[in-house]
Automatic annotation (TrEMBL):
Originating organism: Pontibacter arcticus
Single GO term (MF): 5-oxoprolinase (ATP-hydrolyzing) activity
Protein name per its UniProtKB record: 5-oxoprolinase subunit A
Enzyme class: hydrolase
The encoding gene: pxpA
Subunit field text: Forms a complex composed of PxpA, PxpB and PxpC.
Organism lineage string: Bacteria, Pseudomonadati, Bacteroidota, Cytophagia, Cytophagales
Role: Catalyzes the cleavage of 5-oxoproline to form L-glutamate coupled to the hydrolysis of ATP to ADP and inorganic phosphate.
Length: 266
């Protein structure tokens, strides 16, 4: 699933990249992450839509925080699995996938419009994201749902995946996403969280991987093979114990490397 290198420089000659983070994943009385502080260091926020995490009040509050900090807002639809945080695969039809995405994107878009903002992007969550990366049919259903609800939104998908291809085919602007804290398999997929070494816990190693993906368009797989990858947007996770420190560190390091952090142009 590796792709050609297409990073576009600004007039200044600097490379640019979007830095996104999954947010709004608290639920009821349970608080997850430090969204308000992390928003100071990212350019895009993927806000949970109530299926894998989040609820109406959390959605409203997170949208307001993102708007106040001038961070691009995205819908983060997932599988209906609060207990498993949307990370467990489910057998769903393409029609069910379409319906789920329309429902969740429509809900988040409603809160964005009510707050006077504009929905910037859509990024599927967890198992739905990984399933779509490999399934053309599932990806087509998701892309069609996004296009029907918000055709001006950017569709975020795993770099070189079936999801980004489907988005382009339906007429959406797409962004190839890479991950700071995840390892890769030689086919371009992410290492399953069920396997050893799926996560990169050393922040220096994680940022080193990101810098190389952005500057060289290369990443090393767990099998020791190297492949090309397009890094339009970099995902960091906001639910870890050191999430805020890492967000601050990666933003500072990117800027030190003359990489401009900014949202994907929609």
């Amino acid at each position: 699933m590796g792709t050609a290198i297409q990073n576009k420089p600004l007039d200044t000659g600097h490379l640019t990249v979007d830095l996104n983070c999954d947010m709004g994943e608290s639920y009821g009385i349970y608080t997850l992450g430090n969204d308000e502080a992390i928003l100071d260091h990212v350019s895009s926020a993927n806000i949970a839509c109530g299926y894998h995490a989040g609820n109406p009040a959390i959605m409203r509050k997170t949208v307001a925080l993102a708007l106040a900090k001038n961070v691009a807002i995205g819908a983060h639809p997932g599988l209906p699995d609060l207990v498993g945080f949307g990370r467990r695969e489910m057998t769903i039809t393409h029609q069910e996938a379409f319906d789920m995405v329309v429902y969740q994107v429509g809900a988040l878009n409603g809160f964005v419009k009510a707050a006077g903002g504009k929905l910037h992007h859509v990024k599927p969550h967890g198992a739905l994201y990984n399933m779509a990366a490999l399934s053309a049919g599932l990806s087509e259903a998701i892309a069609e749902a996004v296009y029907k609800v918000c055709p001006e939104a950017v569709l975020y998908g795993l770099a070189g995946s079936a999801l980004t291809k489907a988005g382009k085919n339906v007429g959406l602007r797409t962004a190839n996403e890479v991950f700071a804290d995840r390892t890769y398999q030689q086919d371009g997929t992410l290492t399953s969280r069920r396997l050893p070494n799926a996560l990169i816990t050393d922040q220096n190693e994680a940022v080193k991987q990101v810098i190389r993906m952005v500057k060289e368009g290369k990443v090393l797989s767990q099998q020791g093979t190297e492949f090309t990858i397009q890094a339009d947007t970099v995902c960091i996770h906001g639910d870890g114990p050191h999430a805020l420190a890492f967000a601050r560190f990666i933003r500072q390091t990117l800027e030190n490397e003359s990489i401009v952090v900014q949202p994907i142009k929609s």
